[in-house]
Amino acid sequence: MSQQRQALKIVITGPVNAGKTTLIQHLSDTTMASTDVLATDGVAALKALTTVGLDFGILKVDDTLEVHLFGTPGQERFNFMWNILGKGALGAVFLVDSADPDSLTGVDPTPWTVWGRKFVNG
């Protein structure tokens, strides 16, 4: 009799070009589902493709536990996806490019609430 795996949901979020898609690709034990399209506007100067919906991958911890990784788009016009993808999440990872000092421009250093849970930013 096979035991059903427990699934935990984690959201990977952050600004454009932080590496969210790449992180999920590297962590996932399955083929990652992605909604990348050709980048336009100012994003095209940074990279060829950009996420417009979500990225999804599964990290298999062991025979009984897997982590479902949901990546948000980085462009501000898709911020509404944070609330959609955040429902039922155990936590969130806010990813930034440490080589880009401007990636935290405009981020408030005070604690903030995401999907009903308080997180400390910084």
What does this structure look like?
- By secondary structure, the protein is mostly beta strands.
- It has a single domain, classed as Rossmann fold (3-Layer(aba) Sandwich).
- 12% of the residues lie in helices and 35% in strands.
- It has helices at residues 20-27, 80-86; strands at residues 6-13, 33-38, 49-60, 65-71, 91-94, 112-114, 117-119.
- The chain has a five-stranded mixed β-sheet.
- A hairpin with a 2-residue loop joins β6 (112-114) and β7.
- The radius of gyration is 15 Å and the shape is globular.
- The model has no long low-confidence stretch (mean pLDDT 81).
Identify the notable features of this structure and list them briefly:
Rossmann fold, mainly beta
